[in-house]
Amino acid sequence: MANFTTHISQARHNEKLAQFLLDKPFFDWSITISFYAAIHFFEARLYADASDITNKHSESSMPLEPNGDSKYSAHSWRARQIQDHYPREAWRSFRSLKEASETARYLSHIDIKTAVPRFEIAPSFNIFNVNNAKFSTQQDLPTFKSALKIDLAEFLYTLDLVSINPIKAAFISDKILDNFNTKEALLKQTKDSLRKCMTKEDVDVLEQGLSKKGLSLKK
Amino acid sequence: MPPTVISNSTVSNKVTLPEKTARFFDYGRVYCDFIKSAEEKDEQEMIKCYLKAHQASKYFANALSNRQYDDLVMIAVLNSSILTDNPNEIIDEALSSAEIYSSFMPSQRQEIELAIANRLKGVEQVIAIFTQRYRSELQVMVFLNTNKYDNELIYKILDIEYELQKQINEPLLAFSYIPNVYKNRREVVSKGANLIYEK
């Protein structure tokens, strides 16, 4: 399964393609691609937040039936995790992307019992206009990324705190993500101000990570 | 005349107006609650509870008075008279009738379907709602009267969905909002899907 860097790379790749297609005749596909970018951003955040290998991916935390089958579909379980652990606007933008992409993607719906595809009477480019595509790509996706604090999560990941303290790294990242929205806001902190939400040892680990990148907290 | 037991599926297939169904079950529940609470009280309080149950039973009978539930109306009317005319016999009768009414109380799924239908029916563009089981999810297919995708409408509906998702933890609900682009709605739901609301 992919790690943080792979998920972020794929997410940004998808995001660029979604933007690229907006002024093309295939603008409806930018909706679906934005949704898949959102999935990779979420999986990246999950990977960064996870304290152990069993909860680094939405699939690996999926509840199972007694016979070993997954209890839920992957998309539904992901939406539930977002609802339970992240702000409401993260859930709404993710659900909006999922909804639009499923309508755009499925010119057919699969009948669950018979597995027979049933076709709509209108193709997706007749149901959507370019403004719908822009809504997904320029409103929902940025809102989702912002609510998940993807930029800050990515910055923390690059500090490689795991190599400094593998036990506390995820905990320190969680504390920072709970208390700050951006990298800039974090770097404006002093050691003393960070002690309001972290222990001295945590702050030391963070400082070492920053130092490796040539950065430091405010004096 | 023995009561005709209506299965959950029969009830849900016939009842497509959530507010009527909700009233029906509400009166039944009030009745059962009074009977149950009477068991734990002294004689005087018990009689008061039964009298309240009698009143609830009358409302229940009124709520049931449509062609679909003739047998239940008879039972409810019968219980109303037993509860007032034969106070010495009311305990056994009341308990047995409470048991009968309990069997008509909605299942967890029906309660959830009622909650969903009651919340979404207020959205003008919602024209039908189906539910179907998939794995351990309850899939909720909401059909809209729009034939173009409307992001603002979806946001409005998602705000309602969020409240429902927070209220109902189990089973996991998976909503879909489907534009009016199908020839036949039944083509996009499974054969066993349950129509819980239709405009």
pLDDT under 50 segments of chain B (min length 5)? 1-24, 66-70
Number of helices of chain A: 12
Q: The CATH topology of the largest domain in chain A is what?
A: Four Helix Bundle (Hemerythrin (Met), subunit A)
- Which architecture of the largest domain in chain A does the CATH hierarchy give at level 2? Up-down Bundle
Distance between the termini of chain A: 41 Å
Structural account:
The complex is a heterodimer of chains A (219) and B (199). Chain A has 219 residues and is mostly helical. Chain A is built from 12 helices and 2 strands; from the N terminus they run ααααββαααααααα. Chain A folds into 2 domains: 4-148, Four Helix Bundle (Hemerythrin (Met), subunit A); 152-212. Chain A has helices spanning 4-21, 28-49, 74-85, 88-105, 124-127, 130-147, 150-158, 161-164, 169-179, 183-187, 191-194, 200-212; strands at 108-110, 117-119. In chain A, helix 2 (28-49) packs parallel to helix 6 and helix 3 runs antiparallel to helix 4 (88-105). Chain B folds into 2 domains: 16-102; 108-198, Beta Polymerase, domain 2. Chain B is built from 7 helices and 4 strands. The longest helix of chain B is centred in the N-terminal third of the chain and has 22 residues, at 43-64. The two termini of chain B are 37 Å apart. The chains are: A mainly alpha (219), B alpha+beta (199).
In brief:
With 219 residues, chain A is an all-alpha fold. Chain A contains 12 helices and 2 strands. Chain A has a two-stranded antiparallel sheet with strand order 1-2.
